[in-house]
Design goal:
With about 700 residues, the chain is mostly beta strands. It has 6 helices and 52 strands. Helix content is about 10%, strand content about 35%. This is Lamin tail domain-containing protein.
């Protein structure tokens, strides 16, 4: 008899020990007939599955919802009515309303299930005495209800979850929030007189364990969003990557010297838990964070999550989060990836576990700059200054996905958003170019306050970065003081790149560059108005044709308008001395004191090319290449030289002083430019005479010059 009793005891002991390894099994062992079971275990390290579905367990059909097994409710139903139950579930998933259906639970008590609009749910839960709220919208339904929300319990993810409302008559109502864009709720009412007390007791016990075992560590910031006008509001995502809970007490955000304590909830952040801290107006499930200056999330700098003895940094993007019509969140090294045509590229509240690496992601090192345009483009005679752009060429051998890349230009930082994979030799165009909206290789960005000397880089989400352009224009003659990219009529010139060397964009009508890829674009108004650009085209090739230019007219003193001296009317005129006109030249202005100013400037394909500081007062209809800092010394002995920008070969030289060539008669208010011409086969410099062209302001009769016109 003793042997039998000992054997039975051992069997019971091993069964009990086995059941305690799983808390759900423990509950089942305690009462196999219970239809409703609530599970909460925030200390559990197991990653939960998000579920709202019917399952088969221990021979019973049960509906389970939540973050199983860390936070869930399981309700077992009788076999009769299962198909109708599934139909209601399907209607909820599809966002459609169906009539309420009733049957029995596994303990033969009655239940009702249906789908409802928000107004229907509001009526059903009216008069409840307790609510476990997983959807913020439901929290304020009953002012007198004792409601427990995310500040009373921990979930691994920060999404809308199920809510439970209990009543004095023992009835409980399980409410599931709408899915995605739906507005239809699921309502499931059943009898469970002890559920309220069980929920409260279990949460209190488990929270106490979490509070007693938490460690004074620091979680990490994983994602932020700081755009003002989004319906989502502004938020900061925090994640505990550890398997142990982190104590809340002492944690604070620090943003440009403004320290804000994290709001206290259960007293700890569970292991592998994700939280959203946000401004109150945020439509997301969140914990309201007050006192932070949300506008600072757009600044360049860092936000810190810290406690007294330790802090972790998170880099800010230094720009906005809205690009075109798409909102992007920021992950510290890159904007969030966007694989579909979504308005919101982000995943707030999702548990940050290490996912699969995108094996098709492009390598930043496989890109080079093809073209850089910092001024915009002409359109219908008006310079569109926000039409700045970059063209990148992909040099990699493998077909790859560029969606995880971002581009930086000056203080501008933008995600590359292209919904296709790219192949070797393809061009990616990045900028604000409305005429490229249907181009599959175009990514929208608005570059602000950028110049030709601003650094350009490309990087991926892992922080790997390649500098595409360091902003330094190198030539065989050295680095020019200034680069001229714009005409007084608004016409612009891009900077081209070939094998890492920068040069001014050639004229797109040149036959030696005709590669057959520009047929339809050459017919467009954009291309006709901007011949020194080639957005979205592989076009940057240096000419191999021999060409050369020289000086043809020089006004080193400017003009007189009546008796008023106009020094800004100083100009230089260049002429091609070969059959083919060069695309650009390198100019040196060598003053008598030895100071040198160098200028890289474009030359026109046909006719004469002019350089000045801007619009001329006395010749207002003449167009010049514009250098706002341009000037020529009017005293001392000075030398002007121009060189081949690619080889450094000296093309021409001109020397002058206050005595000429040219006339600067300050007593009689007369100014005449110096003009180069051939006399008996010899080049000579003489005083220019005005013979009626170009148009000259009538008040400038004592100024003799003819910029842009051959004498």
């Amino acid at each position: 008899m003793r042997t039998i009793l000992l054997a039975l005891g051992l069997i019971i002991f091993f069964i009990s020990a086995s059941c305690k390894q799983d808390s759900r099994s423990e509950l089942f062992w305690e009462d196999i007939e219970r239809s409703v079971q609530f599970q909460y275990d925030p200390i559990r390290a197991e990653y939960p599955r998000l579920i709202s579905d019917l399952i088969q367990e221990n021979g019973r059909t049960c509906f389970i919802s939540g973050e199983d097994p860390n936070f869930s409710i399981q309700i077992c139903i009788a076999n009769t009515g299962i198909s109708e139950f599934e139909q209601v579930l399907s209607a909820w998933r599809e966002g459609s309303l169906v009539s309420e259906f009733g049957s029995t639970l596994s303990d033969d008590s009655e239940y009702k299930i249906g789908t409802y609009p928000f107004s229907g749910i509001r009526k059903k839960v009216e008069g409840s005495k307790f609510a476990l709220v997983g959807d913020r919208k439901l929290k304020s339904l009953n002012a007198g209800t004792m409601a427990w929300d995310r500040s009373n319990f921990n979930l691994k993810n920060h999404f809308k979850n199920f809510s439970i409302f209990t009543f004095s008559n023992g009835i409980a109502i399980l409410v599931l929030p709408p899915l995605e864009e739906s507005e239809v709720y699921l309502g499931f009412s059943f009898k469970s007189s002890s559920l309220e007390k069980e929920i409260q007791n279990l949460i209190r016990v488990k929270n106490q364990i979490g509070l007693e075992s938490c460690i004074s560590s620091v979680p990490i910031i994983t994602e932020i969003f700081g755009e003002t006008n989004s319906s989502l509001g502004r938020w900061i995502e925090v994640y505990n990557p550890n398997i142990f809970p982190i104590c809340e007490e002492g944690l604070e955000f620090s943003l440009f010297g403004n320290n804000v304590s994290l709001p206290q909830t259960t007293g700890f952040i569970s292991g592998q838990e994700t939280r959203i801290y946000a401004e109150d107006a945020t439509s997301l499930e969140h914990i309201t964070l007050s006192g932070i200056k949300w506008g600072d999330l757009k600044k360049t700098g860092k936000i810190l999550l810290k406690r007294i003895d330790r802090s972790l940094e998170f880099n800010l993007p230094g720009s906005g989060y809205l690009f075109g019509e798409t909102y992007y969140s920021w992950r510290g090294n890159s904007f969030s990836e966007c694989e579909t045509n979504s308005k919101f590229c982000m995943d707030p509240g999702e548990n940050q576990i290490s996912g699969a690496v995108n094996r098709d992601a492009c390598d930043p090192n496989d890109f080079e700059l093809e073209e850089l345009n910092p001024n915009g483009l002409l359109h219908n005679g008006i310079l569109q200054e926000n039409w700045k752009y970059l063209d990148l060429i992909y040099k990699g051998r493998l077909i790859c996905d560029p969606s995880s890349l971002k581009i930086s230009w000056g203080k501008n930082l933008f995600p590359i958003r292209i919904y296709k994979k790219i192949s070797e030799g393809e061009i990616l165009s990045i900028g604000n170019l409305p005429f490229l909206l249907r181009n599959s290789s175009y990514s929208f960005s608005i570059f602000k306050s950028v110049g030709a000397n601003d650094l350009v880089s490309i990087s991926n989400s892992e922080g790997k970065e390649k500098v595409l352009w360091d902003g330094i224009f190198r030539t065989p003659k050295g680095i020019p003081t200034r680069i001229i990219l714009q005409k007084t009529n608004g016409e612009t010139v891009s900077i081209c790149f070939e094998d890492g060397q920068a040069f001014l964009h050639p004229n797109s009508a040149d036959p030696y560059l005709n590669n057959g890829s520009k047929s339809f674009l050459l017919q467009s108004a954009i291309v006709r108005e901007n011949p020194r650009t080639s957005a979205a085209r592989k076009f940057c090739q240096r000419s191999q044709v021999v060409s050369k230019a020289g000086f043809s007219e020089i006004s080193w003193m400017g003009s007189y308008q009546g008796v008023d001296p106009i020094s800004k009317d100083r100009f230089l005129e260049f002429v091609s001395v070969t059959e083919n006109s060069p695309e650009s030249t390198f100019l040196e202005i060598i003053q008598g004191n030895g100071a040198i100013v160098s200028i890289l400037l474009p030359l026109d394909k046909e006719g004469l090319s002019l350089l000045s500081s801007g619009k001329s007062i006395c010749f207002p209809q003449t167009e010049f290449w514009k250098d706002t800092s341009f000037s020529l010394p009017s005293s001392g002995s000075n030398i002007l030289k121009i060189y081949d920008p690619f080889t450094g070969e000296l093309w021409d030289e001109f020397q002058y002083s206050s005595s000429g060539p040219g006339v600067n008669d300050t007593r009689n208010k007369i100014r005449k430019s110096a003009y180069s011409k051939l006399e008996s086969g010899t080049r000579v410099w003489s005083v220019s005479l005005y013979s009626g062209n170009p148009f000259r302001d009538p008040s400038c009769v004592l100024t003799d010059a003819h910029p842009g016109i051959s004498e």
